[in-house]
Write a structure and sequence with these properties.
By secondary structure, the chain is α/β, with parallel strands linked by helices. It has a single domain, classed as Rossmann fold. The protein has an eight-stranded mixed sheet with strand order 3-2-1-4-5-8-6-7. Helix 6 crosses helix 8. 42% of the residues are buried.
């Protein structure tokens, strides 16, 4: 891995090994499939994606990218895990999803190539897996057009998040493979807000994502103590 690429080789290898399971609804990626309708509805309610050029950063196997394309967006999904991208491309072919393309490229490189090119940028469940999240936020800001929206989701860093997102989800309930997350890489909302301000993005909306492990029900709320999302806008 090029030392200038903002990615952890171990993280890429981890997700590449699981790549063939991205679209298995009973696999480790089941939670992403279950929360995807909530995420998509929240994004679309703030910045309707139909007929818009959308970038999905850290798209993995394409769960969100595919659903945004089906909502009428022209979507580019990018990732550095090549096996996951191949799965995403294969799924798009099998599902006949038009309007979505995938590319193996870092967000920083794409920002240098195509500044201010997208109406909407999404970066979901990705910041907690990279060495320099501020660099990703800055690149996302550079990629969106003036007046466009950038959405982030990640995990708060506190005792509650450690208990639920790591001990609970990975070790007790087995919802995720052990080692999926590293506590020290979690990001407090205040830290992400600072990254956004430094990148020239205005924070407009926040939302928490909650979960009942017994009923497997997810819902959005004002509680950002564990999983949370930001909707930011680049000044016009």
């Amino acid at each position: 891995m090029n030392e200038h690429v903002n990615a952890d080789p171990a993280e890429l290898a981890k997700f590449s090994e699981l790549a063939h399971r991205w679209w298995d609804l009973e696999s480790e990626f089941r939670p992403l499939h279950e929360i995807n309708p909530l995420r998509l509805a929240w994004i679309d309610g703030i910045a309707p994606v139909a007929d818009r050029r959308v970038l999905d950063v850290g798209c993995g196997g394409g769960i969100l990218a595919d659903s945004m394309a089906r909502s009428g967006a022209d979507v580019l999904g990018i990732d550095l895990a090549d096996k996951a991208l191949k799965v995403a491309q294969l799924h798009a072919l099998e599902a006949s999803t038009s309007g979505v393309k995938y590319r193996e490229v870092s967000v920083e490189v794409l920002a240098a190539e195509q500044p201010a090119s997208f109406d909407v940028v999404t970066c979901m469940e990705m910041l907690e897996h990279v060495p320099q999240p501020a660099s990703v936020v800055k690149a996302c800001a550079d990629l969106v057009k003036p007046g466009g929206w950038v959405f982030f989701s990640t995990i708060n860093r506190n005792a509650k998040a450690f208990m639920l997102a790591i001990l609970g989800a990975e070790y007790v309930l087995g919802m995720l493979p052990r080692g999926t997350h590293e506590y020290q890489k979690f990001i407090k909302p205040s830290e992400l807000a600072a990254h956004c301000r430094s990148a020239g993005l205005d924070l407009r909306h926040t939302r928490g994502l909650e979960h009942n492990p017994l009923t497997r029900r997810y819902w959005l709320s004002a509680d950002t103590s564990v999983n949370y999302m930001f909707a930011t806008r680049k000044p016009g």
